[in-house]
């Protein structure tokens, strides 16, 4: 049996594995990416899009800010750019790119092939090589590969089963026959708690069999949008050439077909089936649990310029093919639809992520990291974000450096990882804006302001880009100062022609007012003031947007910053590694169990554990002051 040695092994070529391998190689580590099929690297088995609502688009931007690959490749292979929730507040606005799934995977595979320090091996990992609770490599069929660190990113390939009605198959996404079974048994033997989760996908319909005249056109957004700072706008698909999506709705006839066939859906007939995603339910799940809804949305989305297929977003299903066919025949515009691929559900193993440290290393096995859907998440963006942080932290561990732990006030990625390792996830986790208590600080427009200082410190941002960023920040500060200095008269004819209702609010605006104060009104923007401040034209769309949001929401942002500062005293209160919570008198039984299991690093993390209430925190803080008096970071 042959043997090879590397610094770092990444298992799995999905979005988590790609980011982990890329970033580790960029940090100078000798990396091998082991995947079942080289041609499936970067594959999109579900909706071919990157970003979207619930913070996903902001996560993709954060991945780019930390020098990951997802945003760059999404920009380069986009079919449509759209800013979601554009009419809502900036905290929930998010970019979505409809990707060309064929071009996206091909682009990723090309970049992997060209990346220095990165090798790809095709094969199935049969066992992790472990000695004295330390992983030192993996075993394939005909070879052993050793390394200092192993990152496991197996996605939905651990003991997968697919369902179409009562037809059950042992296969991975998209009918993939190569799956991973032995690792589940080994992980359980090592003491890892495994869960069964479930997700699903939608039918793919041939484009030329759809009557789009019966659907509602859903175009993209005509703004200079992009995920990556490395993408040049002139190289991206222009708005006039972007592919539209289309919208239609289900009807009572479809609902009746589903109700008559619910007994064929595994969510009802199969006992102990894996838990599905709450925020992306199957169509039959919607009809069963939301019977009062008269209709549900179905979006028709392009898959690729090279394919004749449309993805039916909102029509995820595990019903039998013959029932899916009946449903399609009753969707407006799809009466004569021809199907390339039928929908299905997939059930797979995931681990209990509370068995991970905040750097994504496992607590049970030293030097073993885990990332992606294996950790119980759903979505490409959540997986890629974990892979990126796992790769960074694995590389930093090799170099004997402190891990990168992003705070909940610094990034959605920080919220994601803190939730995973702190809270017990009992269903596929999807990142939502509502999960971020400081979401007004974690916006699309300010991602580089938030994260580039960290990226530069990590050695991932070229010095030239850092210098240019700093120079732009100086210029922006000068623009803001000018906005405060330059004042206009509210009865000036030019001002009145722009804002005819301005003088109706004399209590708020006096006769002479600064442009800075005028910008606090929702309907007033920087672009209105080119005549008074020509330097505004030098701002990019993203720079102008960040300035406008910071001014319009100045009071709210200030309050959130104050909340962050108050919460930091709990985050700075370290918890001793040797503490036995069973010995802390008066703690609730549930709090003792959860604290002993999760072993939080700080009092702040302890506060976020489900089942640990404010009284438990008070008791714990008093105990720390009494038993560990030398902890000088206590809370008075």
Helix content: 25-40%
Cα separation of the termini: 61 Å
Helix vs. strand class: alpha+beta
Percent of residues in β-strands:
15-25%
Tally of separate helices:
20
- Describe the sheet with the most strands: 7 strands, mixed
Q: Assembly state here?
A: single chain
* Count of β-strands: 22
Low-pLDDT residue intervals, each spanning 5 or more residues: none
Please name the CATH topology of the domain at 204-344. Elongation Factor Tu (Ef-tu), domain 3
Radius of gyration: 26 Å
What's the CATH C level of the domain at 204-344?
Mainly Beta
Describe the structure.
Strand 1, helix 1 and strand 2 (31-35) form a beta-alpha-beta unit. Among the domains are: 204-344, Elongation Factor Tu (Ef-tu), domain 3, CATH 2.40.30; 463-562, Arc Repressor Mutant, subunit A (Orthogonal Bundle), CATH 1.10.10; 572-627, Orthogonal Bundle (DNA polymerase, domain 1), CATH 1.10.150.570. The termini are far apart. The protein is built from 20 helices and 22 strands. The chain is globular and about 80 Å long. The model has no long low-confidence stretch (mean pLDDT 93). The strands form five sheets. Strands 1, 2, 6, 7, 8, 9 and 20 form a seven-stranded mixed sheet that branches. It has a six-stranded antiparallel sheet with strand order 14-15-16-17-13-18, with no helix packed on it. The chain has 636 residues and is of the alpha+beta class. It is 33% helix and 18% strand.
